[in-house]
Design a protein that fits this description.
The chain has 257 residues and is of the alpha/beta class. Helices cover 39% and strands 19% of the residues. It contains 8 helices and 10 strands.
């Protein structure tokens, strides 16, 4: 069984990795927050480029990537431009999105790149292109309106998996407890059937908050916590979240003997 490992961190084994997003707007604030998180307990730092006040300025993005590169010798760097349609804060056409992706690959410090699978006209082709440039791909889909059926969620995950992504990510909004159960069910099924493709899932908002804690049991390999500003509803404060994850991990380890 092949396991994705980057900078000594293995996805899909043991405690879910903790990712914290940087949602600051200015260059100075972004660099300051990344510097802080580089010394924190977070496993992964996600820069949400769409939150940057100059999100459509390639030179400004390039300057930040150059400035923060030294902070990622050990920490994993997830680079994300989340469009408004998927719950983000900015828009970019296909040509601009390709340029934004290329900035990540040229930086030499980005480990993981989030690609909104259903928003890409040629997602399979873009994944192959970015792989050749040396970054791992998180194929993602976010539904802030609701939770699709079990069958649709499974289809989405399988389609992203078939596209060649290194990890697949699905975030949904629950309206009932059954929605949360369905998200956890499809996570466990996918993880069991595709052990060599790490999965990241979450049920957002307060109703779905349990999904951010039980990844080790159901198969989700990364969970998202917040420092200054949450990147999605329902996130816990990063250190409180990590304390809980470590307690749950120790409990599971004792159960296994």
């Amino acid at each position: 069984m092949k396991r994705l490992e980057i900078k000594g961190k293995t996805f899909g084994i043991g405690r879910p990795l903790l990712c914290v997003a940087v949602m600051e707007r200015t260059k100075e604030e972004i660099i300051r927050e990344i510097a802080f998180l580089a010394e924190s307990r977070a496993d992964i730092i996600e820069w949400r480029v769409d939150a940057f006040e100059k999100a459509n300025d390639c030179n400004a993005i390039r300057e930040i990537l150059h400035a923060v590169a030294p902070y990622f010798e050990k920490k994993l760097f997830l680079y994300t431009f989340r469009t408004k349609k998927q719950g983000g804060e900015a828009e970019a056409d296909a040509e601009m999105m390709m340029d934004i992706h290329d900035l990540a690959t040229e930086s030499g410090c980005v480990d993981l790149l989030d690609l909104e699978f259903l928003e890409e006209e040629h997602a399979f082709r873009e994944i192959r292109r970015l792989h050749k440039k040396g970054v791992a791909i998180v194929a993602s889909h976010h539904d802030f309106d609701g939770t699709p059926s079990l069958e649709v969620m499974k289809m989405l995950l399988e389609k992203m998996c078939e596209g060649g992504a290194d990890l697949v990510k699905l975030a949904v909004m629950p309206h009932t407890r059954e929605d949360v159960r369905n998200l956890l069910t499809v996570t466990a099924q996918f993880a069991e059937e595709n052990p060599d493709v790490p999965i990241i899932t979450m049920s957002m908002g307060s109703m779905g908050s349990i999904s951010r804690l039980c990844g080790e049991t159901f198969g989700s390999c990364v969970t998202f916590g917040a420092h200054k500003r949450a990147s999605a509803p329902g996130q816990f404060e990063m250190n409180c979240l990590l304390d809980i994850l470590e307690l749950l991990h120790e409990s599971e380890a004792r159960e296994r003997g």
